[in-house]
Amino acid sequence: QVQLVESGGGLVQPEGSLRLSCAASESIFSFNTMGWYRQAPGKERELVARIRGSSSTSYYADSVKGRFTISRDNAKNTVYLQMNSLKPEDTAVYYCNADRYGTGFWGQGTQVTVSS
Question: What percent of the chain has pLDDT over 90?
Answer without folding.
Answer: 93
